[in-house]
Recover the amino acids of this structure.
């Protein structure tokens, strides 16, 4: 007898983002065989989610533990295993009769957390079923391997922002120079990168220079555009202090792709603006003479 085949419907979510969790559903079709055991590796692209083993339908359906020896499921290092079918025990698989009451065989499920290194790639997974055919004069050991279940993982980036000022204490009328640097630590190239950096009302915009893209003072938006993995861009803004205040200026970055570490997407600088120094010898009004 030819080996039984795993179905083509080994299922996985078709589009994921790095650090998402993927549920793998694997079906073992009905066949007149004994000692049915299924195994599946989690792959180098992900990490098994503890406690996610489950027989979805068929004999012994329900949640399973990860420990060996206490039910039909087991997780060991980087592989999950199930003993399947009627009368299955933790140590040995059971039987799946070729019967109309079990048209779809049995299906198992486990979950894998997609790793950072899988971002922007396609990941694959295979399952293997071992069984024993007892229809002939001698038991025949059978092994069947599924086709690849292919899942596309969305690109992901890690933007970070560093903001500084040439001076954190100025007087009214002086110029403040801000520098904002946005960096992409990858793993993929970033697109549609934008940095929001609105000047406070106590500062008047004078000029700006950007290494990438353009800065619009009215909206405070720096349109960076694409930023390759490992690349950075810098914006320099000159502004005039116009009123006494203690003010904080914040720059925040965003991109089209998921940011794996949003905690470093913003940075702030506090500026203290003091009054102009009093000068008793300065002419305050037209025609007034300075004191001797």
């Amino acid at each position: 007898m030819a080996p039984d085949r795993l179905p083509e419907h080994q299922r996985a979510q078709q589009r994921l983002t790095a650090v998402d969790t993927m549920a793998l559903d694997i079906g073992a079709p009905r066949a007149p065989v004994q000692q049915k055991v299924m195994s599946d590796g989690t792959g180098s692209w992900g990490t098994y989610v503890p406690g996610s083993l489950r027989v979805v339908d068929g004999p012994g359906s329900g949640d399973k533990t990860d420990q060996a020896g206490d039910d039909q499921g087991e997780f060991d290092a980087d592989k999950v295993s199930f003993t399947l079918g009627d009368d299955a025990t933790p140590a040995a698989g059971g039987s799946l009769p070729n019967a109309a009451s079990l048209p779809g065989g049995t299906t198992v499920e486990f979950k894998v957390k997609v790793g950072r290194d899988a971002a922007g790639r396609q990941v694959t997974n295979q399952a293997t079923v071992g069984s024993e055919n007892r229809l002939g004069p001698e038991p025949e050991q059978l092994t069947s391997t599924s086709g690849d279940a292919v899942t596309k993982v969305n690109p992901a980036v890690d933007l970070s922002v560093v903001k500084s000022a040439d001076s954190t204490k100025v007087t009214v009328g002086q110029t403040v120079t801000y520098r904002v640097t946005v960096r992409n630590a990858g793993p993929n190239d970033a697109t549609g990168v934008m940095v929001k950096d609105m000047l406070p009302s106590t500062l008047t915009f004078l000029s700006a220079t950007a290494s990438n893209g353009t800065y619009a003072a009215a909206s405070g938006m720096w349109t960076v555009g694409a930023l390759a993995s490992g690349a950075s861009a810098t914006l320099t803004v000159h502004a005039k202090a116009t009123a006494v205040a203690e003010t904080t200026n914040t720059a925040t970055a965003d991109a089209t792709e998921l940011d794996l570490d949003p905690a470093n997407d913003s940075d702030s600088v506090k500026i203290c603006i003091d009054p102009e120094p009093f000068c008793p010898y300065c002419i305050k009004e037209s025609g007034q003479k300075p004191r001797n």
